[in-house]
Amino acid sequence: MATKSFTMGSATIGPQSWRSSTLKDIELSRSAIRRSDQTCVKGRMHDPLPNLRPTRVELSNEEARKHFRETRCVVNQLRENLMETNEEIKSLSRTRDELVNGLESVRKALQLNEENQKVRARRPHREQVQHFKKQHETRHCRN
Questions:
Q1: Measured distance CA(110)–CA(117) in Å, rounded
Q2: Which class for 49: exposed (0-12), middle (13-18), buried (19 or more C-beta within 10 A)?
Q3: Any idea where the domains of the chain sit in the sequence?
Q4: Are the C-beta atoms of residues 110 and 118 closer than 8 Å to each other?
Q5: How far is residue 104's CA from residue 102's CA, in Å, rounded to a whole number?
Q6: CA distances (Å), 53 to each of 47, 48, 56, 72, in order?
Q7: Are 14 and 20 in contact (CB under 8 A)?
Q8: CA-to-CA distance for 141 and 143, rounded, in angstroms?
Q9: Over the chain, what HEC string results?
């Protein structure tokens, strides 16, 4: 079993040989990592495949940006078309309302005219002829 000894100011764990071998293993691991990193860097210089993933990511991102840009353009065009359509609908609604009001006015005038014709038809013959003569005379006097 490993012994544990403590001193004031710094902690010492285990025997000195264990500590030395552990530090030696850590240093060997660090140097292996450095050599591996250097080999990767050299490999990237000579071989395009290690750069394939970043290149694909960059191209994919560019495609996505292009797609989103085009989508925004389509959305803006649709928004403009919607606003134009709404304005056209408003204009057509106003025109329809004006036509409905004009049609109602014509209907009232026709109804009034029909009622006046019925009233004139019920007049005695004597009033109908005099009324006709008065209109005829006033037309000739004006000309």
A1: 10
A2: exposed
A3: 24-142
A4: no
A5: 5
A6: 13, 10, 5, 28
A7: no
A8: 6
A9: CCCEEEECCEEEECCHHHHHHHHHHHHHHHHHHHHHHHHHHHHHHHCCHHHHHHHHHHHHHHHHHHHHHHHHHHHHHHHHHHHHHHHHHHHHHHHHHHHHHHHHHHHHHHHHHHHHHHHHHHCCHHHHHHHHHHHHHHHHHHC
Tokens 């609908």: give the residue. 89
Q: What is the pLDDT of residue 120?
A: 84
122 has pLDDT over 90? no
Question: CA-to-CA distance for 19 and 13, rounded, in angstroms?
Answer: 8
The reported pLDDT for the residue numbered 6 is: 46
Strand 4-7 to 10-13 pairing: antiparallel
